[in-house]
Amino acid sequence: MKATRSQITSAVAGGMAAVLLTLGVAASAAPVKANYPDKIGKGEGQLNLVAWEGYAQDEWVKPFEKQTGCMVHRKYAGSSDEMVALMRQGGGGEYDLVSASGDASLRLIYGGDVQPVDVKLIPAWQDFLPQLKSPPNNTVNGLHYGVSYEWGPNVLLYNTNKVTPKPTSWDAIYSDAYKGQVTVPDNPIQIADAALYLKAHKPELGIKDPYELTRKQLAAAVDLLQKQRPLIKKYWAQASDEIELFKNGDAVVGAAWPYMTNALQKDGVSVADTIPAEGATGWSDTWMLSAHAKHPNCAYKWMQYVSTPKVQAEQAIYFGETPANKEACSAMDKIEKGACHKFHLDAPSSYFDQIYFWKTPRTQCADGQRNCTSYRDWQRAWQRVKG
């Protein structure tokens, strides 16, 4: 079975995660200033990556090595917190690039661990989806601290025989109608999903961004999730967990990724997914360049290479996700008929406008005020939710 992020990653929990979380916050650091190269020089012969498993497969790594002479050394991480810790290991110079998700990227930026990237040196960046050219999870004050790579929405998955009519709201996972048959991810970032729901249903809370919550707003999200707790059959840590729950009939509705929908449908399970009226959260990964990269030319060559339609299509099909490069559509369909549509790369802009991509919660809000809650606050809150 193909390896995916969801099969190797469990949520942040327990003592080790708390240690990694501590490593993931550098209060005294600041974003690195831009110091762009004039051009990409000759490769240094080596490239050290921290990546999700499945993000540096031989199918596209070997051609890159042959083309550039940059030999790729991979270190697979099992969580965003581990990625942050690895990028700070040994003074931050052990790895050149990291495929950071939105719940880690701002920690790396504000921790001074990654440096701005000159997107003019990445030609394929011009063909990226508009929403992923300069997203807030990797772009600060107009500086691009990396290039977007692949992404996916967090959708409402449901059994079409058991959940009728078709759900149009996230109410389906918060109401008693399916008590004991609901499943959601075991991850502190799930708090953002609750906040997005409250943004629509309790406007008096004043939630504008589901990742920028005051203590009052965070408390409201926690309260909603604690009330949801008796409805939960299982908090899933791996895609296979949720797939088995739906196959066995133990769950009939839950928060998921398109990967799970496609896997279940392929196995003949009667399921469908939707983005409800309130919208949805989503994840977007970014290749980020270490502030202390020892092989910057090879790193830039890698970012150029993996941003091309062919490689993005190969990655998307292997992993079960969607490219940032909209020109990858035809390449996806060449590999697997209908893949472009299946993973929504050909969707209208209104589809993407419904998605609030992950970004790291920080005490400083976008408006400059410092009354928002941090990722640490969210991690502790999630433990309270689970009891």
What would you note in describing this structure?
This protein folds into 2 domains: 5-150 and 284-346, D-Maltodextrin-Binding Protein, domain 2 (3-Layer(aba) Sandwich); 153-281 and 368-386, D-Maltodextrin-Binding Protein, domain 2, CATH 3.40.190. It has helices spanning 5-8, 14-23, 58-68, 80-88, 102-110, 190-201, 215-228, 239-248, 258-266, 296-306, 309-319, 329-335, 339-342, 349-353, 375-386; strands spanning 46-52, 71-77, 97-100, 114-115, 139-140, 143-144, 147-153, 155-159, 182-185, 232-236, 253-256, 271-274, 280-290, 322-323, 355-357. Strands 1, 2, 3, 4, 7, 13, 14 and 15 form an 8-stranded mixed beta sheet that branches. Mean pLDDT is 91; it is low at 6-27. By secondary structure, it is α/β, with parallel strands linked by helices. It is 36% helix and 18% strand. It comes from Salinisphaera hydrothermalis (strain C41B8).
